[in-house]
Amino acid sequence: MELTINGKKEIIDKGKLTVGILLKLKDIQMPEMVSVELNGEIIDRKDYDKIELQNSDIIEFLYFMGGGNYGN
C-alpha cells in the first residue's frame, strides 16, 4: 500500500493497517501526544484502532507544543 506520511511517499507492506498499527510501525514516540490527520481531517484518538487505511491515503502526525513566554 502506498501512503503519504508527513509529506513523504512510503510503501507499507502490511495486511490490515489501522492508524494505531501505523503509529506502532513508525515507532512514534509519545503517541498520546500526537494528533493524526487523515486526508485533511483530524481523527479522534479513540478511533485509531478502528480506522483502516487505504491506498493513497495522506497521513500527517501532528505534535502540539505548549509553553513559552511571549513578549518578554
From TrEMBL:
Pfam families: ThiS. Gene3D superfamilies: 3.10.20.30. CDD domains: Ubl_ThiS (cd00565). NCBIfam families: thiS (TIGR01683). This is Sulfur carrier protein ThiS.
